[in-house]
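Blackboard transcription, Thursday session:
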Amino acid sequence: MPEHESVEKHGSPAQEVGDFLRRRGEQVAQRWADEPLFRTVFTVSRDEAVEAGKIVVEALAQVADTNQVHDPDAAGFTVVREQLSRMGAARSRAGFTTAQVSNDVNALRPPVENLLLADLPDASADRVRECTTALTVLMGTLRLVVLETALSEGQALIERQRLQLLEVATPVIKLWDGIVAVPLIGTLDSARSQVVMESLLEAVVEQRARFAILDITGVPTVDSLVAQHLMKTVAATRLMGAECVVSGIRPAIAQTIVHLGLDLGTVLTRASLADALAYALHELGADIINATPGGAGSR
Amino acid sequence: MSHDFSRPVTGHVPVLRLGDILLVTLQGDLYDSTAQQLQQDIGDTIVSTGVTGVVIDISGVEIVDSFLGRVLAEIAAQARLLAARTVVAGMRPAVAITMVELGLTLPGLRTALNAEAAMNLLSGPDQDTRFGGPRQENR
Amino acid sequence: MQTAAGVEACLPIRSDMDLVWVRQHVRQAAALLGFSLVEQTKLVTAASELARNTLVHGGGGQMETEAVTGGPANGLRLTFSDEGPGIPDLERALSDGYTSGDGLGMGLGGARRLVHEFAVDSTPGVGTKVTVVSWAARSPRPRGEL
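(Written on the board underneath:)
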């Protein structure tokens, strides 16, 4: 078959795809700008989407030049990794699943493929097949890179939030001179009860607190593990010379504790945080007296 | 108040007498033999001086293992036999957490936040059970 | 991290003075590897229990320390070995309240609760080797912003 002047002779189909991407970069980027992946991330201006598209095309061309179409670790991808992760993250934030993001990236392939085919009108059938295969592999690798970055972003986010939650969810509050309290909200696992115990004990030292109140009103369930954590905290507080009161034991939880046969015998308990505070104040020699006659008395 | 060091000798922990109370300040890392010597010294000093309270300040102690835990429990038990009350004061949070994890809760031991609070505790009336036990108040 | 120099060591356990060195070295090594204060205290206490076991029951021996790096978190491995009579009934020795010497019966079982990984290899008449590993909690710093 005779060679045509418009199609130069190349070493490999991948490199030919690379050349094509350079040649048609502008058009590819223009078409991508209308695809959901770009359109939804660059909502402000379409030009921005086109610019981002051009950068990605250039990266793909580079990867193709080096014959690494199948390699997600190819050097060419490093430039666009941040760009891609931003797009993946934006889609995740919008509530899209990984499979949907994968489809979005997949949707980028047909426009490029059409342009490629239009660019090779006179090439042999074999050559066309080789080039489209190289492009397909390259786009598949791109999809892999996007998913990889999106997933690792997700992991990093989860880890950050986990640590933030540990710190945010356990504020130690000074209720009165010598009385500190931690209102616990949410499930108590081992890592969290460790943080609770440490911050409560640190507060006991700092505030010279004689009473530490652990309020479990916001803890959904108490199983034997949670009970064990509570008892450890109580024991550690006692070793330091303070008294720990567990408050906020709802009737349902009290029932569970009894049903499970858990022995909280060594733990001082009160039904509500108010009761615990009244108790601690009383022990410190301060009592709350209602100013209005006929009001409910203090404990 | 009389301030006299009973045995300011190397290998011994100084036992300071403040009126009716012995103040023992543990610092840093102790040899096992030093801790055992202390146990003996405190017993001897209670007998010779007739004090009614012992305060062991452990705010300078970085770890309490089962050996030192046992020494503290035995000092308290021995003092009780000699009609003196013992308070362990100033345990660090990290030490308390570790002891609980280790399983050493020393139930018979009285504790206080610091030496001053321990002194106040000992100068008050002798109440072995400070709290009447748990109360459940579900309304 | 260039911390191996301050971590790797082999210390003899022959007297109660050696126990002090063991505790100080473990504390230093754990601090170098980024253990928090509570984590340090737990590991030092476990080391103290195990070293005392080596001394009292094993008739003396040694402790080796080794950093475990390269993973997501830094770890410290301690190996206590003696050539003593060995532990005839390991199950019982690990259960709470069991004691054959001084202490409150917390030695082996208590030490196990203070570390993340715990292994005993004991042959009656040949000796005992206890290996423990603890990991420093991962640092609460975010890995860079988006």
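Lecturer's comment: Confidence is low (pLDDT under 50) at residues 1-10, 128-139 of chain B.
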